[in-house]
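Table S2 (text version). Query chain:
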Amino acid sequence: MEKKFKTIGAFIIASAIIWGVVIVGSSYALKGTECYDKIQNILVGGVLSHIILIWGPLALLFKKTKERKS
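Corresponding structure-token output:
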């Protein structure tokens, strides 16, 4: 049970790192310009990587945990 919480904690930390990079990348791209397309691409990249790398495996982990309990 303890390992499960460490794994979930790692996903949460990874999520925070991804969004931190997205925010820093957005602020760097905004520096002195009006560039909506660049910002939009950075944010979409962040969302997609977050869904694929964080929530996909986390959903599988929850599903396996639920199946074990059944």
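Notes on Table S2: Helices lie at 2-30, 36-69. The chain has a mean pLDDT of 80.
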